[in-house]
Amino acid sequence: MNSNYDNNPSITQMEEWARVQTELKLNLIETDDLDFTKTIKEDNGEQVIEFNGLNYIGGVDLSFENNENNEESAIASLIVLKYPSLEVIYENFSSVKLELPYIAGFLAFREVAPLLDLLQNLKKMKPNIFPQVIIVDGNGTLHPRRFGLASHLGVLANVPTIGVGKNFLQIDDGETLTMAHVKATVKEKLKKGGDTYLLQGQSGMIWGAAVRSLDHTTNPIFVSVGHRISLETSIQIVLKCCRYRIPEPTRQADIRSREYIRNHIS
DNA sequence: GCGACAG
DNA sequence: ATCTTGTCGC
After folding, report:
1. A139 close to A222: Cβ distance less than 8 angstroms
2. Residues 48-87 of chain A sitting with CB below 7 angstroms of strand C
3. Which nucleotide is nearest to A183 (CA to C1')?
4. Which UniProt keywords apply (predicted)?
5. Is it the case that residue A207 has pLDDT exceeding 80?
6. Which of A58, A91, A103, A150 would staple A136 via disulfide (CB 3.0–4.6 Å)?
7. What is the rounded CA–CA span in Å between residue A224 and residue A185?
């Protein structure tokens, strides 16, 4: 009888992974390094932000089947949307076999390889629509070592990425970054769509931001720098992609990879 | 030791 | 992540 815990990584394996993250993080760029520009205009005292030359935004995700054994299979998806219309112009999927369990803080070691494959395939086959920035379903710098899946993928692919999480990952940097404090502050400060508050720890470090997508969405999303982009720009791009709580690139990646599972596997 | 814990 | 119908509200 093979149960799932015989595939659990050892402590030394996790320490090795942590070293890999710290090593790769040396290449991390947390400022805007983009091939499009941002302009901020004043319109009756209101800030109007425009991204000039931004045409293609990507979204990546993995969807899993009902797993019963330790042999998990999943579908990885890469979606490209036209900006600013948010029309889907490309989708691709790949099936993945996964043996390692999910471990908070080490998500990239489960998911990054198939996502990287999809990106490299697109760059080879259709370089003209390769996304100028990719929104990733998972955190970037909002991570114990400031190097979550979004940053990991961004560095390996050398592409600008933004991390978006649906749940808060607690960071060990003082009381302000505990689950309880973040929940309370979200309720207190995020009153309308577009409201944000910075997730700053006791050290002064800013790890990401809690963002209210729309007026009618109560639960925030958690935005952080992936790679080659600033937190401010990340938040602004995410907000421009929000027709619902989850920004369209990752929302479409999620919807379409699930649909793929329904039609091809189930 | 206990609790927390992206997807 | 995923199992799942109805249901409350705009």
Report:
1. yes
2. 62-64, 66
3. B4
4. Cytoplasm, Endonuclease, Hydrolase, Nuclease
5. yes
6. A150
7. 18
Distance A219 CA to C6 C1' (A): 22
pLDDT of residue A68: 65
Residue A2 confidence class, pLDDT cut points 50, 70, 90: very low
Would you state the pLDDT for residue A72?
Answer: 85
pLDDT band per the 50, 70, 90 thresholds, residue A69: low
Token duo for residue A95 = 């099936």
Residue A153 in tokens: 């993928």
A182 CA – C7 C1', rounded, Å: 29
- Asked if A166 CB < 7 A from strand B, the reply is yes
Architecture of the domain made up of A4-264: 2-Layer Sandwich (3.30)
Distant-in-sequence, close-in-space partners of A241: CB < 8 Å, separation ≥ 6 = A57, A81, A86, A135, A247, A248, A249
Residue A74 has pLDDT above 50, yes or no: yes
d(CA A255, CA A126): 23
Region A192-217: what's the mean pLDDT? 95
Whether pTM > 0.90 for this model: the answer is yes
Strand nucleotide closest to residue A167 (CA to C1'): B6
Decide the pairing of beta strands A88-98 and A161-165.
Answer: unpaired
Which helix (H) or strand (E) segment is A45 a member of? none
A183 CB inside 7 Å of strand B: no
